[in-house]
Amino acid sequence: MIRILIADDHAIVRAGLKQIVQQTDDIVVLDEASNAAETLEKVRKLKLDLLLLDISMPGRSGLDVLLEVKRDFPNLPVLILSLHPEDQYALRMLKAGASGYVTKESASEELIQAIRKVASGGRYMSMPLAEKLVFGMVNNREVQPHELLSNREFQVFRLIAAGKTVKEIGDELSLSVKTISTNRSRIMEKMGFRNNADFTQYAIQHKLLDGIAA
């Protein structure tokens, strides 16, 4: 039996995922979580075989959760479930330790297949993404500026682009204003930005604001 925790801030999404899982005889949902703190608490408390994790949640993001889970529980497989386009987020999450990545538009059969494969120690990605990796389309294409940002810088970048203030970002990520300001300066240098409007314009152009609340 594959014991999973569903971490997603939308109750209707969690209910839908549980309904999909209930159609199987080898996967059981032990519990669910609606934010980062709750997710980390239950990962530590429950005996899990897999964490099904959404990227965008209130407070600390799914990327924060992933990094902490892989630090404390390196052998726990994490399958990312997201609204975000694969090209923009999948590789970053896989490099951070995720074992697989599926979008919320995926068919229920694909989700079940992904859960089984990741829980058994494998990796899962959709056929289109796998083809890009196999044929080198991702590695050989021109690298986008935002792909050069660290995970923390990428988080701060998206939040600034969404219109949040330095203080709001610091509160959300549990970091000091000074740390956020330092990250903002590094981002501006790496991306060639002049002001916050450049953050927003770039994020919209590259579809990087999906799933983030302003």
* Count of runs of 4 or more consecutive helical residues: 11
Q: Please tally the β strands and state the result.
A: 5
Please list the strands of the largest sheet in the order they lie side by side.
Answer: 2-1-3-4-5
Total tally of structural domains = 2
Q: Using the 3D structure, state the CATH architecture of the largest domain.
A: 3-Layer(aba) Sandwich
Radius of gyration: 17 Å
The CATH homologous superfamily of the largest domain corresponds to Response regulator
- Stretches where pLDDT falls below 50 for ≥5 residues? none
- What percentage of the residues does DSSP assign to strands (E)? 5-15%
Judged by helices, strands and strand pairing, the structural class is alpha/beta
| Secondary-structure element pattern, one letter each | EHEHEHEHEHHHHHHH
Mean pLDDT: 87
**General shape:** globular
Query: What's the N-to-C terminus distance?
Result: 40 Å
Main sheet makeup: 5 strands, parallel
